[in-house]
Design a protein that fits this description.
With 288 residues, the protein is an alpha+beta fold. It contains 10 helices and 7 strands. The chain has 4 domains: 30 residues, no CATH class; 50 residues; 92 residues, no CATH class; 33 residues, no CATH class. Strands 1, 2, 3, 4 and 5 form a 5-stranded mixed sheet that branches. The chain is elongated, with a radius of gyration of 34 Å. GO terms for molecular function: nucleic acid binding.
Length: 288
């Protein structure tokens, strides 16, 4: 035990109770509480970090799964090498922003070359119309089941943790609306209900082109300026065919002649289908 004066002075300087100081002195230096050292990445330079990042990206380019072990082995086999342990690599991946989790497959589809091109065309068209001062209107639809309840809650599974959930499935509400920079379009809100027993698992199938066209002509068009640009997705009910394109089992010659396309009197089914395929037949956009 040290001198009482020294212990008191140490307590005052460190703002630690005297009893705690006495206990530490009695226990000796081997029992002093150790601070957990924070791992530093100062020794790992930017070149190595970028090398690790490129290695992971190459896995995806080759359509391979980048697990920690696979990444580490790939780094060790590379010309640059990797002089750190697998545990250090794991910590470095966290520092670089990589997380081990479920892969978002939708992102793969959204970044496909075809959709990238379509996205670029869409952005260019929107920019062109904005620069022309056009009023741009966006429309979309969603759904809500009236008897929906939260699936996850805090509960101890006792009778006290129950709700008065309705027994029936209720109705499905289809909500359709449009808006732009100025807010929602007045009078354009449509709420359509349908019993869930007769509803589809996909709410898109509960809409049809007739309902959409009626809303488009009666509630949307009268409430927006005539020079507006309307943006919508390619849901099946957003457009409908004026005439059904002939198939193998339907008459094709009469259909083609009605569109001023001449065909020989005696033509094979295959040749007529080829003519149908090589010609564009207008689709009517609902509401136009």
């Amino acid at each position: 035990m040290g001198d009482k004066g020294e212990i008191k002075e140490t307590s005052e300087l460190t703002n630690v109770p005297i009893r705690t100081v006495c206990r530490i002195v009695s226990a000796g230096s081997n029992h002093l509480p150790r601070k957990r050292t924070k791992i530093s990445f100062k020794r790992i330079d930017n070149f190595t970090e970028e090398h690790v990042r490129r290695t992971i990206y190459n896995f995806y380019l080759n359509n391979e799964i980048p697990t920690l072990r696979e990444i580490y082995q790939s780094l060790m086999r590379s010309e640059t090498g990797f002089e750190y342990s697998e545990t250090t690599l794991w910590r470095l991946l966290k520092k670089l922003g990589f997380k081990y989790g479920k892969l978002d497959e939708r992102r793969t589809v959204m970044e496909s070359p075809r959709l990238l091109l379509l996205r670029e065309k869409f952005i260019n068209k929107i920019r062109l119309r904005r620069s022309a001062g056009k009023n741009i209107i966006y429309l979309d639809e969603t759904w809500f089941d009236t008897h929906d309840t939260l699936k996850k809650v805090y509960t101890d599974n006792s009778p006290s943790c129950t709700t008065k959930a309705p027994c029936s499935r209720g109705k499905r509400l289809i909500i359709l609306h449009a808006g732009g920079e100025q807010g929602w379009i007045p009078g354009a809100l449509l709420i359509s209900s349908k019993h869930l027993k007769s509803s589809s698992a996909d709410y898109h199938e509960d809409m049809d082109s007739g309902l959409f066209e009626k809303w488009f002509t009666d509630q949307l068009l009268p409430n927006i300026p005539s020079s507006s640009v309307i943006v919508m997705d390619n849901a099946s009910y957003h457009s409908r065919q004026i005439e059904k394109i002939p198939s193998t089992n339907t008459r094709k010659s009469d259909f083609l002649r009605s569109h001023n396309i001449s065909v020989p009197e005696k033509s094979t089914i295959k040749s007529l289908l080829e003519v149908v395929k090589n010609n564009y037949f207008e689709k009517k956009i609902c509401g136009r």
